[in-house]
Amino acid sequence: MNHIKFFFISITLLVYSAISAQTPILDSGGPLSPEQAAYDVTFYDLSVSIKPETREIDGQVIVRAKVVHPMNQLVLDLDTLLNVQEIWDLSNPKKPIAAPFVRKVGQIWIDLGFTRQAGEQVQVRILYGGKPRVAARAPWDGGFTWATTKSGAPWITTTCQGEGADLWWPCKDHVSDEPDSMAFNVRVPEPLVAACNGRLRSTIKHKDGTQTFHWYISTPINIYNVALNLAPYRSIEGPYKSVTGETFPVVFYVLPDDYEKGKKLFTEIFEHIKFYEKMLGPYPFRVDKYGVAQTPHLGMEHQSIIAYGANFNNGSMTGGKDWGFDALHHHEFGHEWWGNLVTNYDWKDMWIHEGFCTYMQALYMEELKGIKGYHDYMNASRRFPNNLAVAPLASQSSKQIYRAPIYTKGAWILHALRAVIGKEALLKSMRRLCYDTPEAEKIKDGRQCHFVTTADFQLICEQESGKALGWFFDVYLRQPQLPKLVSKVEGQQISLHWETPQNLPFSFPVEIKINGKIQRLDLGKETITLSFNPGDKPEVDPDRWGLYDIAK
Questions:
Q1: Rounded distance, CA 221 to CA 218, Å?
Q2: In this predicted structure, which of 151-155, 429-433, 481-485, 489-493 has the lowest mean pLDDT?
Q3: Is the CB of residue 448 less than 8 Å from the CB of residue 440?
Q4: Per-residue pLDDT for 22 more than 50?
Q5: How many Å apart are CA 511 and CA 2, to the nearest integer?
Q6: CA separation for the pair 158, 210 (Å, rounded)
């Protein structure tokens, strides 16, 4: 009996260990290991063949990396569901050699034979394949989506923001590591079209009824944005003249049944481009294209080929409410600036991607319908938990930070910041976070892409406004709880002051409306008292600029 008991305990521990060991492969980011911090990938050459009938892929990737610290092993990430056939060390291109490797859960440890020194180049070729992970609930769960169109044709996409690109190809899965450029070659059965990132160099037909689409991404890319979109697409194309005076191609890859709907949205896409360029500067990837691919999942910000699955429903991502524009396209397109041009090098600052994109929609409402439209949009989104810091100081993985209210609270933090520093300073700060100088707006060779942090944004806001803002960022971004407004009416007087979490410094302006007139108070933690006439009813923060709880 004791032997049997020991057997079952051992099996249980093995199963638990296997489950625990696989958890990291379904997440992305967090602190870099010393082995992966030792190098930076500069180029990927990815070739993948898609087999819809068996839901399998065959792939090859060449990884070129620059050594940062001495290393004798190259550690890459790859989902355990995929097999590695062989690896070749191409560091000496005239004499490739087979490289020994071992699989350690979600990683490949490649033996480089001898220590490579800082500044040297490492290059390996990996042959791999198998049945990739299926996305249970794309885009929120990562993997492949093997859908079909109404006519029964394959409709295949990838999503992997939370889990990382290692779900379907060997790579260094960390948000801080972007290749300078990338080749992306996709082989599919005819008549499927591969709509992917970058610009299309060529399409080659093969005798076996397949064709290969050769794409090239000429600028740095966060690799979770590398995407497959496969369907019998029809393309809607047209040139757009940027604010720089250059013309770049806009392409909408749409299902044949939705071609007419696609043409209607195509017109609105141009309006969205116009708005974003006006607010933030030129479209960052005009050297390649701006693409939209219709997908069987809701959407994703894949660089230069955003995924669009709103089914031409303006309210698909706004709880069913139609604000007068396609909110899904507007949001995903905004990530071309907030996420793709400007990238957090650690997921802890992910609110710069999601909160800023959410706030851009309020600004678009202001553009369309004035300040009332702006406030209507903001007030409709004033629902979020205050459980986790929006921009914590500690490193975060993707799944950790997405538990925080980085979308709507992030947008409300920008809304509150506007009340402190003014609209002009806020908009200038946001544009400077994208392009620090007018000269930077002319760059299109990849140098325009850069990493940022919340601290960078704070510094820019302080420069543009002339105000110290550490107190604002500490209260709203570094910890989760909201400040409390203490308001008390006695007779013909109203008194107000702030209470803050951990007694943090705080001085937020509050508007008081009395008898139709608005007075702005620079309110801190010390009580301010105002008098009013009999019959008047003071209204605190009538336009709801503040982000706070009411003290009870």
A1: 9
A2: 489-493
A3: yes
A4: no
A5: 74
A6: 20
User: Among the listed ranges 1-10, 129-138, 287-296, 390-399, which one has the minimum average pLDDT value?
Assistant: 1-10
Q: How many CB atoms neighbour CB 23 within 10 A?
A: 11
Give percent above pLDDT 70 in the chain. Answer: 96
Instruction: Please tell me the least confidently modeled range out of 7-16, 86-95, 330-339, 355-364.
Output: 7-16
Q: What is the DSSP letter of 171?
A: B
Across the range 25-42, mean pLDDT stands at 93
Q: How confident is the model at residue 93 (pLDDT cuts 50, 70, 90)?
A: confident
Nearest to 292 by CA among 343, 339, 344, 329: 329
Copy the structure tokens of residue 129: 């394949």
pLDDT at residue 10 above 80?
Answer: no
Report CA Rg, the chain: 26
Return the DSSP state at 197: S
Q: Could you tell me the pTM of the whole model?
A: 0.93
Kindly tell me the sign of the dihedral angle through the C-alpha atoms of 407, 409, 414, 415. positive
List, as one string, the DSSP characters of 391-419. S-SS--BHHHHTTS-TTHHHHHHHHHHHH
**Closest C-alpha to 430, from 408, 455, 461:** 461
CA–CA separation, 552 and 182 (whole Å)? 57
Distance CA 178, CA 44 (A): 10
Other beta carbons within 10 Å of 277: 18
Rounded to whole angstroms, the Cα distance separating 207 from 93 reads 30
User: Which distant-in-sequence residues (6+ apart) come within 8 Å of 165 by Cβ?
Assistant: 171, 173, 223, 224, 226
User: What Cα–Cα distance (Å) separates residue 66 from each residue in 28, 37, 108?
Assistant: 22, 11, 18
> The tokens of 404 are what?
């925080």
Torsion of CA 346, 275, 216, 184, to 10 degrees: 60
Residue among 522, 512, 501, 498 at smallest CA distance from 542: 512
Token pair belonging to 516: 């139709």
All residues at 6 or more sequence positions from 281 whose CB lies less than 8 Å from its CB, including other chains: 243, 337, 431, 434, 435, 441
**What values do phi and psi take at 37, rounded to 5?**
-70, -10
Terminal CA-to-CA distance of the chain, rounded, Å? Answer: 62
> CA angle, 109 as apex, 106 and 113 as ends, to 5°?
175
pLDDT for residue 292 is more than 90: yes
pLDDT, mean of residues 534-552: 93
Task: List all residues 6 or more positions away from 100 whose beta carbon is below 8 Å from its beta carbon.
Answer: 110, 111
Residue type, 150: K
Rounded CA-CA distance 240/249 in Å is 6
Q: Which residues, 6+ apart, have CB-to-CB distance to 540 below 8 Å?
A: 485, 487, 494, 496, 510, 511, 512, 513
Q: Reduced to 3 states, what is the DSSP secondary structure of residue 349?
A: helix
What integer pLDDT is reported at residue 24 of this predicted model?
58
